[in-house]
Amino acid sequence: MNIENFWLSQTTDALRVLSDIQHNETLKAQFIAFVLICEDALHRGNKLLFAGNGGSAADAQHLAAELVVRFKLDRPGLPALALTVDSSVLTAIGNDYGFDQLFSRQVQALGQAGDVLIALSTSGNSVNILNAVPAAKSSGIKVIAMTGATGGALAQIADLCLCMPSEDTPRIQEAHTLLGHILCDLLEQRLFRNI
């Protein structure tokens, strides 16, 4: 394969997804609701819980870190937790209950009413993510999903589902990171600069 042509095709595809995101009025409205839900939870002293598998696990950890530490502003840490980081908990749940209970068990243990679960799944069909939704809802935790174009089964059960306009996993994950960065930036600005 010609490297230059591949470079052009990949960057063109990434730009198309970004353009589709920028001009999607439904997604924009959903994103605004996402920001306001997270802002309200943090304002009330609740926390954001992030969950995902594989690359989405890395995104969950990345976004939680941006909130706990800092994004752009030097400010107090915000309560955010990636449910993907404790190897002892992950392996114990996987061994004792099964991988499909990986996130639901942690939501039951760590979540409180008023928290927000941000569920990242490119397919929207990851069983351990799907199982976390009823666990969250029964605890009074709102569920916001970030998925690919179809939303999968997750779109039907989440309180809010932001579907990226792509079915290509790398493009979906890039879009999740973009919206996650915008979320972190806005939360900092709105919570600490009152815009």
Question: Overview of this structure, please?
Answer:
The longest helix is centred in the last third of the chain and has 24 residues, at 169-192. The protein has a 5-stranded parallel β-sheet, with helices on both faces. Helices cover 57% and strands 11% of the residues. It contains 8 helices and 5 strands; from the N terminus they run H-H-E-H-E-H-H-E-H-E-H-E-H. The protein has one domain: 3-Layer(aba) Sandwich (Rossmann fold), CATH 3.40.50. Helix 7 links the parallel strand 4 and strand 5 (160-163). It has 195 residues and is an alpha/beta fold. The mean pLDDT is 97.
What tags apply to this protein structure?
single chain; alpha/beta; five-stranded parallel sheet; 8 helices; 195 residues; globular; Rossmann fold
Outline:
This protein is an alpha/beta fold and 195 residues long.
Map the helices and strands.
Elements: H1 3-22, H2 25-43, E1 48-51, H3 55-68, E2 80-82, H4 87-96, H5 102-110, E3 116-120, H6 127-138, E4 142-147, H7 154-157, E5 160-163, H8 169-192
The total beta strand count reads 5
Please, how many helices? 8
Shape: globular
The major beta sheet can be summarized as: 5 strands, parallel
